[in-house]
Write a structure and sequence with these properties.
heterodimer, A: 49% helix, B: 95 residues, mainly alpha
């Protein structure tokens, strides 16, 4: 989205958020979507980008989606994704919990009971930080192995600032890390797993270093980080894939899949089959619910935004 | 860069022996070719070409082999073979 559009969105959000926060959480989430749909209706550049993206997704899946309707609704869902867990900011546990519907919690709990830690394999589908919010509220020993997300609730922000040897603060990674720093961060994650914690990391992170693999996703080839496969093989920790579906009624439905186990031999083997295994699950859900696709279709229609500026800087530096 | 293994830093026989052992562990963990020279001053990343995940393997195997705990925050300081050996020597369990 162009700068003008971003400023307008910021203004709209700043103006409406205090009102949204007074609503019942699911209703607030539904109302938030209206801002995205309004942008789609009134900003030609937004409309063009979403239409092109949905067309690209439709062509890949060869479906009969109504492009305009899907694109308009996607714009609404997209803003729910972008505002992360901010609508839950300051809510008491009971009100915050009312947003969530949980499926497959037993898979997560059974994996945790193995006492080898759990790799919680997330992605960029749906409300992709909502599971972290829920897990923090539920008291799971969660650590997030990813770049520090900005603009999150105070609950999450305070959690991010936890210090100490296994504190979240030191677990964040950056595209600018040198190899020794990257090694230190993987060591931290592996120690967190050994301590029986849940380490959340994404299966669809476009990254540029030697620990990546080019894998097919949505009909195109992307270079994704293979760190989750390495860490799983190295630690023996079970891997539980999670999806956070944004529902039409404003709910966040968390879906935990049965755990999978990556054998130690995978450490030096081709990681592609493992990565495809995770990516296929994302593709299935995107096909079934394009409104939860967030940026995925933009990866197809607008490749320039699929690799962040930071990643490109990384390439230039090396 | 064609290298061969050379004797470790001058010093006591014990220190030399430890340096050799650490070098051996690094070579195995990072799967370095047998003809790669490892000097005490060899930088793990720049000179030996060890990348981040192999570096994790090096640290984990050194921990296991010598029974020492390597603090994650110290990894960035362990840039050379000598630095790693000194770190291990300072933490070796007393017999």
């Amino acid at each position: 989205m162009r700068r003008h559009g971003l400023n307008l969105r910021k203004f709209l959000l700043r103006f409406t958020f205090p009102f949204l926060k007074r609503l019942e959480p699911r209703q607030a989430s539904r109302s938030l979507s209206a801002i995205g749909r309004w942008e789609y209706r009134h900003l030609a550049s937004v409309r063009l980008r979403f239409d092109r993206a949905v067309e690209a997704g439709k062509a890949h899946f060869q479906t009969d989606w109504d492009v305009v309707e899907t694109a308009r609704e996607l714009a609404g869902y997209h803003i729910r994704f972008r505002t992360r867990d901010l609508l839950l900011d300051g809510l008491d546990d009971e009100r915050a919990r009312s947003v969530f519907e949980i499926e497959g919690r037993e898979h997560l709990d059974e994996a945790l009971a193995q006492r080898r830690g759990v790799i919680l394999l997330s992605n960029h589908y749906g409300g992709n930080l909502m599971q972290a919010h829920w897990m923090i509220r539920e008291g799971y020993p969660l650590r997030m192995y990813m770049e520090r997300p900005r603009r999150v609730s105070r609950l999450m922000s305070n959690y991010f600032d936890q210090d100490g040897p296994l504190g979240q603060k030191k677990m964040f990674i950056s595209r600018k890390m040198e190899p020794a720093e990257a090694a230190a961060s993987v060591l931290k994650a592996s120690k967190a797993l050994r301590a029986g914690m849940v380490v959340m990391m994404a299966s669809d992170v476009q990254w540029i270093d030697s620990h990546t693999a080019e894998v097919e996703f949505l009909g195109k080839r992307f270079r994704f980080s293979t760190t989750w496969v390495t860490l799983a093989a190295m630690s023996g920790a079970p891997v539980v894939q999670v999806f956070s579906h944004l529902e039409p009624d404003g709910a966040s439905r968390l879906e935990f899949l049965p755990a999978l186990s990556v054998p130690p031999e995978a450490l030096r083997a081709n990681p592609t089959p493992w990565m495809r295994l995770a990516l296929v699950e994302i593709e299935r859900r995107v096909a079934a619910s394009p409104l939860n696709s967030n940026d995925y279709f933009f990866w197809l229609s607008d490749p320039d935004i699929s690799v962040s500026a930071a990643a490109l800087q990384h390439v230039e530096r090396h | 860069m064609t290298m061969r293994t050379t004797p470790p830093i001058s010093g006591s026989a014990v220190a030399d022996d430890l340096l050799s052992q650490v070098a051996d562990q690094v070579r195995r963990a990072a799967k370095l070719p047998a003809d790669r020279i490892m000097q005490p001053s060899s930088r793990l990343v720049e000179d030996l070409g060890i990348d981040s995940l192999d570096l994790v393997g090096v640290m984990l195997q050194v921990q296991d082999r010598f029974g020492v705990e390597i603090d994650d925050d110290d990894v960035v300081k362990l840039t050379t073979l000598e630095a790693l050996t000194t770190y291990v020597a300072q933490r070796l369990p007393q017999v």
